[in-house]
Amino acid sequence: MRAIVTVMGIDKTGIIAKVSTCLFENGVNILDINQTIMGNIFTMVMLVELGKESSDSAKVLCELEKIGNEIGVDIRMQNEEIFNSMHRI
Predict the structure, then answer these.
(1) Per-residue pLDDT of the chain (89 residues; tens, 9 = 90+)
(2) CATH 3.30.70.260 is held by the domain 2-86
(3) Which of 5, 47, 50, 70 is at a distance of 20 to 30 A from 83, taking alpha carbons?
């Protein structure tokens, strides 16, 4: 399954490291990543793939949300197909 992971919040050291470490530890491959800082707002969008060795998506999302709460950012993950359907004009 491919998914879109979004991260948004006040910029601080370690956001990318913590999120990518969580994904790695759950067997999730990062296919593409785009991040920017607008003023002091950090935004990141990742295209990821949960492979056969990956944990289930609900577990990965739960762990990402815990990290988000710890570091004060909003982290969301959504199936790529649903994301694309919601954002079609």
Answers:
(1) 899 999 999 999 999 999 999 999 999 999 999 999 999 999 999 999 997 765 588 899 999 999 999 999 999 999 866 666 666 65
(2) yes
(3) 70
